[in-house]
Amino acid sequence: QVRLVESGGGVVQSGGSLRLSCTASGSVRSIIDMGWYRQVPGELRQLVAVINNLGNPVYTESAKGRFTISRDKANNMLYLQMNDLKPDDSAVYYCNAWAGGQTNWGQGTQVTVSS
């Protein structure tokens, strides 16, 4: 079992930046891939970016060029640097870890971008 706790969300103006953090604990040695997802009310949770055990990132089109995912394996941390934020980026952002054959989720952190 992996426990994930997100932080760093908040309210920011359009064009601003935020850095999300995710702290992993528990069976962290079993973690393979980690990622960030987001969800708005009434819609499905959507992938933002993932990073594998070797540190190779993959971004969705909406995140490319604006967001950077990074991972500090020594300290069991996952980050998402978000720049040039837009109102459409407003959502609850969730940290995800694939470990031990199952997916694990954090409780989410709210990001609100005002126009």
Q: Which key terms come to mind for this protein?
A:
59% strand; mainly beta; 115 residues
What does this structure look like?
- About 0% of the residues lie in helices and about 60% in strands.
- By secondary structure, it is mostly beta strands.
- Strands 2, 4, 5, 6, 9, 10 and 11 form a seven-stranded mixed sheet that branches.
- Strand 5 (about 45-50) and strand 6 (about 55-60) form a beta hairpin.
- The radius of gyration is 13 Å and the shape is globular.
- The mean pLDDT is about 95.
Oligomer: single chain
Share of residues in helices: under 10%
Parts with pLDDT < 50 across at least 5 consecutive residues: none
The whole-angstrom Rg is 13 Å
Beta content: over 45%
Number of separate helices: 0
- The strand count comes to 11
Identify the overall geometry.
globular
Mean pLDDT: 97
Write the layout of secondary structure elements.
Layout: E1 2-7, E2 10-13, E3 18-26, E4 31-39, E5 46-51, E6 57-59, E7 67-72, E8 77-82, E9 91-99, E10 102-105, E11 109-114
Parallel strand pairs: 2-11
Antiparallel strand pairs: 1-3, 3-8, 4-5, 4-9, 5-6, 7-8, 9-10, 9-11
Write a compact overview of the structure shown.
The chain has strands at residues 2-7, 10-13, 18-26, 31-39, 46-51, 57-59, 67-72, 77-82, 91-99, 102-105, 109-114.
